[in-house]
Amino acid sequence: MPVSLLELQRVSKSYLSGDVQVPVLKEADFQILTGTATAIVGPSGSGKSTLLNLLGTLDKPDSGSVLLSGQDVTRLDERALAAVRNREIGFVFQAHHLLPHCTVLENVLMPALAGGGHAASTTVDRAKTLLKRVGIDHRLEHLPGRLSGGERQRVAVVRALINSPKILLADEPTGALDRTSANEIGTLLLDLNREQQVTLVVVTHSQELASRFERVVEVNNGRLTEQLRKSPTRP
Amino acid sequence: MNAWTLVRRSLVFHWRSHLGLLLGTAIASAVLCGALAVGSSVRETLLARARHRTVGSVAAIQQTDRFFRQDLATRLTGTNGGALGEVRTVAVLGLPATVRRQDNQASANRIQIIGVRGLEWHQYLRHIGQADFNPVGQQIWFNRALAARLNAKLGDTFIVRIHKPTALSQDAVIVPRNEGSVALRLSFAGILNPETGGDISFQAGQSTALNAFVNLDELAKAAQLEGRANWLLASDPSPGRDATLARLESQLHQVWQLDDAELSLRTSKLGDPQPAVELSSRRIFLDREVAAIGFRISGAVPILTYLANGIGTQGRLAPYSMVTAAGAPYTPIDLHDDEIVLNDWLSTDLGAKAGDSVELAYYQVDAGSQLLERTNRFRVRSVVPMTGLYGDKTLMPEFPGLAKAESTHDWDAGFELVHTIRDKDEAYWKKWRGTPKAFITLNAGSNLWANRFGNLTAIRWPANTGSVTNRVNEIRNELRKQLTPSVLGLSFQPTGDPAIASATGGQDFGQLFLGFSFFLILSALALVSLLFRLALINRADELGILLATGWPIRRLRGLILRETLVVALPGVVLGALAGILYGQGIIIALNTIWRGAVAGTGLEFHASVLDLAIGAVSSLAIVILTVWFLIRGAAKRPARELLNEGLRESLPTHLRPLQTWRRALPAVVSVLGLLMLAASFAVSESERPGLCFGAGFFLLIGLLWGFRQRMAKVPKSEGIPSFASLAARAPIRNPSRSMTTAGLLASAAFMVVAIGANKLDATRNATQRNSGTGGFALWAESALPVIQDLNITKGLDFYTLDHSKVGGMNVVPMKVREGDEASCLNLNRALRPRILGVNPQLLAQRHAFTLTDTLSGEPESRDWAKLLPPGKAGATVRGVVDANSLEWSLHKKVGDTIDYVDESGRPFQVLVVGAIANSILQGSVVIAESDFIQRFPNESGYRTFLIDAPAAQQQSIAAELTRGLSDLGFEALPTTTRLAAFNAVENTYLNTFQILGGLGLLLGSAGLGIVVMRNVAERRSEFGVLRALGFQLGAIRRMVLIEHAALLVIGLGIGAVSALIAVLPALLSPGPETDWLSLVITMVAILICGLACTWFGTRIAVTGQVTEALRGE
What we know:
The structure holds two protein chains of two kinds. Chain A has helices at 48-55, 78-88, 104-109, 121-133, 149-161, 179-195, 207-210; strands at residues 4-17, 20-33, 37-41, 63-68, 71-72, 89-92, 167-171, 199-203, 215-220, 223-228. By secondary structure, chain A is an alpha/beta fold. Chain A has a six-stranded mixed β-sheet with strand order 6-7-8-3-9-10, with helices on both faces. A four-stranded antiparallel β-sheet of chain A has the order 2-1-4-5, with helices on one face. In chain A, helix 5 (149-161) packs parallel to helix 6. Chain A starts with a strand and ends in a 7-residue tail after the last strand. By secondary structure, chain B is of the alpha+beta class. Chain B is built from 36 helices and 30 strands. In chain B, the strands form four sheets. In chain B, strands 21, 22, 23, 24, 25, 26, 27, 28, 29 and 30 form a ten-stranded mixed β-sheet that branches. A six-stranded mixed barrel of chain B has the order 3-4-8-5-7-6, surrounded by four helices. In chain B, strand 13 and strand 14 (316-326) form a beta hairpin. The radius of gyration of chain B is 39 Å and the shape is elongated. Chain A binds chain B through residues 49-50, 53, 56, 58-59, 78-79, 82-87, 91, 93-95, 97, 99-103, 105-106, 109-111, 113-121, 124, 140-141, 143, 145-146, 159-160, 163, 171, and chain B through 650-654, 714-717, 720-724, 726, 729-730, 732-733, 1021-1022, 1024-1033, 1035, 1038, 1105-1107, 1110-1111, 1113.
């Protein structure tokens, strides 16, 4: 039976826009269960990314709690949070943000180097396996500059999974891609959700992508509204 | 709206980047203008000194040991109806002297005391300047430098000891030893300003001479030179100095008299009653040229009369007798060279008669205090009565110390009278004075007494009774007609033009400081380039839009250049103004903390509009060129690319297939450097530094180029990647920026190591013979010549030196002919450096100094004795010069010649056959003593000394010598002190270079900080992702630090390795060891400075929230 992996409890968050305090979330409650795939949608500026950042411990709420596996991460200091992100959370962004001077393999191994020192050989093996899984194992020694947009994003996905996180958070992962590549990335994320048993949360503008998720949450005016889906669309 | 509107808007909008451009331009302009102003300041100061030194003269007669009549000056201008036009002349008497306060509170050795008459001085100066200057009676005036040295106040009393020239050189045997100097007690009456001739000197040097002025007649009287002078200055306000010199020479030919050459014609006799005319010299011996010409005048009877120590036979000895060597009528025509004619007094005294054999003992004439006695055997040909020809007291020359002695007891012959003077000898002297007791042939006499001063003491010509005066005039005219006054030292030498040439021909400080400021200028331009490049990156969209809307590329470039010009123009003007301050700052530094570089010369600031204009225009051109080069590449990009990708450097995507030859270029350049290094071992040592520096420079370029190419390559994962290895690879992200950073640091390291390795320490290995001290402990100089040998007991006793205090001392004496100071202590160009005459064997035995280069280049030729063999008369003289003096002061090299004029006005050349490594002999040309004596026979004694002394006794020896020889103005100082004074110049240059380079490094560091911040700013979102991936802020900072530290280490490494190659000659030279510790400390300091800048930049840039960074994407 699925258990709660991530949970927002009465979380409020606002930010300053000029001199005006703009509320993004108002005492929001939200729960993500283990192994599920959730899409977060909403109009521009509605607070989707803010929500994702709160979930990913990249940001702290003004009030309320964020529980990861039952632990309130808002009470952790920056060092502990970095460790949590490194071990338990994977991120994929709209821009791939691969290091241009590092090869594909090295980019994937980057999270494993967060503590300094060398990457373990088991991690290297896992990187190669994952890269094979996403179909770019023939590009291990290539620099990001030689990859297509879709390929770069696939490398970014593998990078997010290298430390076997419990949850994969993706912020507009297909936003900068053409339609075909966007489809491929969407499929990949959902497949990995199933295969790797990794909980998936994706922020997207794309209704097409959102429609493929079993759970869709809309952010609007600081409120979260659940859109229950009977059967997600599969390509 | 037009293009200017765009420019105006852009200036306002991009004010930050334009401010950077303006500041960078201003710095470049300030440095250029300031350096040029420094050059002008040094040049103008030296020119002013040169004008003061020559007292406005265009030419001068300058004699050191000959004295013409004072009225020669008026004869020149007053005769021949104004043939010299506006030329003014003045005769003065200048002698070396020492001076001390009566209260002994201050003293100065090696001063010039100058006798002038106030009225004549003012007339010569055309009544410009101090009207009150008129030294009379017991007054003494000083120039400013000497007054300051002596802390002179009006009315103070000073004791001046002057060198009293003797008729014969002090190196002659018969010369009074105790009359070389005379002391005067004088009262200080005022200061003679530089503008009024206070700083008069004939030697090119920026350090002011120490001059004292007294009344001409008083000085001449004290020096027993009444009516005589030895300097004659000629000034001419009209243009055409060459013509003036020619007119002066021509006029001199017309008005000179025999007495100006210390020659005199008098009536005499050739026996009774034959009247005669006699030519003699105040200098005892007739110059060879005079003798040769006189000999050609019909009827000439050449005469050589000199002293025999003793004439004896069979146990009898007649001491100290004059002997005349002459032909008929004094000796029979058929007298052989081994025959002698005795007067009857001597014949009686010795009991010798015709056919007997006698021995004649004599001192070699010019052996000075060494007293080399030789003996010749003669057979008595005949005995003559002491009447007529043989009773002539006037045959004996006016030997100083003898001629005026009433009794033999009053003789001051200059040597110890070892033979007993009997009563009959005393009686002879009283009755017959110096009447010769014996006569030999002129040839025999020449063999005995010919010397460097001459072969004859007189020439007599028979004259008819009643027409002697006519004969005198006849011979005088004939001598004047045939003699050239220049061979008697009467010759005008140009003074004004050589002084100006000397002042302007030395080291160009403008270029020097441009060189010193090179790194600063380079850094400013690198900063301009960096800031402008970053500004262009920011403005890529703007450029793309303008191109997309149809702006032609040329117009776009023009727009940006116009912007640049609008910013750079005020930048260069601001810079020019700042340059004045920068230049003034350097001049102040050169007058204070860097005074070692200019040997304490007080420099006055002088910046011309031309300097500022050249500096400003040059810097503007450089900045415009730099900007043009940058925008040329940017504007080439298509609009689409500019709009989509901007101007960030394209990151490497694959191995660029560089053509092999291009890939090989860095290696080729590096190999070229290494080949130059190898070649440097095959060339002479003087050429080696240049080749090695070239090798180092090529290696620097090659390695940096190689590094640049390396950055263009895709890295390959090697094994399991690490955090540090990935970070260290980051420089390839922005190869140009990385290259700028590494290049700046490499240049800085190159400079630091190259300079550090060349710094000199006089105290290192100072006791070793091959060092710059030659292993000698003391260097000594005296104002007046030291005649006695300081290596023997007799010499020490003569100067009342305490044997116990000078024990263990060994002296290498050197003769001195004054000339231009050719060491680095003189900013002027030395034209005729001081000459030192040394016995080369004394240096060869000690293997003293290191000869870095010789004419043949062979190592075995590096032997003083082989380098300086005794030369032949008339031939080129071989000389050895300190390598630094040769290169920097004389601008010559081994194999070149230096032009001189000998004591008789004859030109000769010194061929430079060897160069000595940085030594205490800087500033002079060293020649063999035998050559020196041939060229300057009247430079008596020794005035410079290299002294070996046990370490423990150095101080006591120096103190005792200074005490004992104080009357001669003797000063001894440790050789390390002298060498350190020379080294201070070079070390100060190096310090200056380092300090200005350090300013450049500061700019470079600022650039590095900007690069770091810019790099970080561009990667904020990337760092945001890393933080999202679990990297902590500290780790990211560490990563950035490692990235830039890699650049630092690479840059420093390339620079250091290249510099070590460049300074290999200095490292391998036997001179002082390199101070590695300081070098390492400096390099580490640069590394720390660079890391600090990086850390600071990282701290500023790597901050903020992750979400903000990610939002930035």
